[in-house]
Amino acid sequence: MDRHHPICRTCGVQRASDADRTVCPVCADERQYVGWGGQRWVSITELHAEGFRGVVRQESPGLWGVGVEPSVCIGQRALVVPGPGGNVLFDCVPYVDDETVAAVERVGGLAAIALSHPHFYGSMVEWSKAFGDIPVYVHASDASWVPRSGNIVLWEGERQEILPERTLVNCGIHFPGGSVLHWPGLDGKGALCTGDIFTVVMDRRWVSFMYSYPNLIPEHPDTILRAVSLVDSLPYDTVYGGWWGRVVAGGAKARVRASADRYLARVGASGGRRS
After folding, report:
1. Are 98 and 249 in contact (CB under 8 A)?
2. Residue 188: left (phi > 0), alpha (psi -120 to 50), or beta?
3. Which residues lie closer than 8 Å to 174 by C-beta, 6 or more apart?
4. Per-residue pLDDT reduced to its tens digit, 155-173
């Protein structure tokens, strides 16, 4: 692994070694922000020296999460989603080292990486290289945000099965390529891994949908209606959001529908309650 590529201190996205360091393009976008202290960069080597470490622990019994402690940048955790043909890492984190890789190997390793949106790209190419240049799935609508070259697989359309029983769904929330991962779940009732495409809020009976979370820009009602309709035909009872503990455990499809209705009502849109 090359631990010296620059990582944005604010969003945690790793860029190519020769990238322009004047400003992080992800943070300059209206959905994110440049840190109040100005643009700053760090590397995996420097994060290690500052005491950051990877952590691999169960999010739910049988489902493993990957995070960084202390929390760094946006603070998301990724998920190691099991199934035939190997595990998928859904979303990514900025930090990776030999100990973290060994911990993931102990729970089955990785066969692929899939990203929900650019804010959670982290050090995705470095993670890919650590597991033998495994494919990194990014929706083609977000191709311009890919920060460095690697085994990037651009997929198109509304759905793409990337490994048996793991299917990406392009919901288009937050970013045009904003995607969730559907899989059978731990109980066979179905589950969605959503990052913050459908973000599980502090009241974990609900999710919400935003164009920008830090800048509080709402998502367009038509985009939300399309996204909910895309997943409505899929069986799912649980939603795993993008941070530790952000899980809608049971009855998740009804909760997503209700969350969309509540959102649309508050922004004055008439989506109609779905049956």
Report:
1. no
2. left
3. 31, 117, 119, 196, 197, 209, 210, 211, 212, 219
4. 999 999 999 999 999 999 9
Whole-number Å distance between alpha carbons of 221 and 226: 9
pTM attached to this predicted model: 0.96
pLDDT score of 273 more than 60: no
Torsion of CA 176, 243, 182, 234, to 10 degrees: -90
Q: In the CATH hierarchy, which fold is given to the domain comprising 7-266?
A: Metallo-beta-lactamase; Chain A (3.60.15)
| Tens-place pLDDT, residues 75-94 | 999 999 999 999 999 999 99
Cβ atoms 195, 92 nearer than 8 A = no
Please give the biggest Cα pair distance in the chain: 54
Residue carrying structure tokens 């900025």: 94
Token pair belonging to 8: 């944005």
Q: How confident is the model at residue 3 (pLDDT cuts 50, 70, 90)?
A: confident
